[in-house]
């Protein structure tokens, strides 16, 4: 029943961790953290598989790597558009 809520919470935590690692987390809001965590989780598990510890059906290590990749990619695209 509350699995979607648990997924949002874990997605937000993954987004916060990825933002902290890339030093771009303080400029992201909580909605962007959730989106980065959920989309990054999907991306990371698609590219690297589901290995390591998991929460709410998300393998943490590939999810964080996917979220880092997503944040760096989106930041690079946004910085190119500004210049």
Overview of the molecule:
The chain has 83 residues and is mainly alpha-helical. The chain is built from three helices and two strands. A two-stranded antiparallel sheet has the order 1-2. Helix 1 crosses helix 2, helix 1 (3-22) crosses helix 3 and helix 2 crosses helix 3. It is globular. The mean pLDDT is 85.
Brief synopsis:
With 83 residues, the chain is mostly helical.
Keywords:
single chain, 83 residues, mainly alpha, two-stranded antiparallel sheet, 3 helices, 2 strands, globular
Write the layout of secondary structure elements.
Elements (H helix, E strand, L loop, with lengths): L2 H20 L7 H19 L5 E2 L2 E2 H23 L1
Helix pairs in contact: 1-2, 1-3, 2-3
The pLDDT mean sits at 85
Strand order of the largest sheet: 1-2
Rg calc: 12 Å
* Major β-sheet annotation: 2 strands, antiparallel
Beta-strand residue percentage? under 5%
Structural class: mainly alpha
Put simply, the count of helices is 3
Morphology call:
globular
Overall helicity: over 70%
Q: Which stretches are poorly predicted, pLDDT < 50 over at least 5 residues? A: none
Q: What is the tally of beta strands?
A: 2
Helix/strand order, N-terminal first:
HHEEH
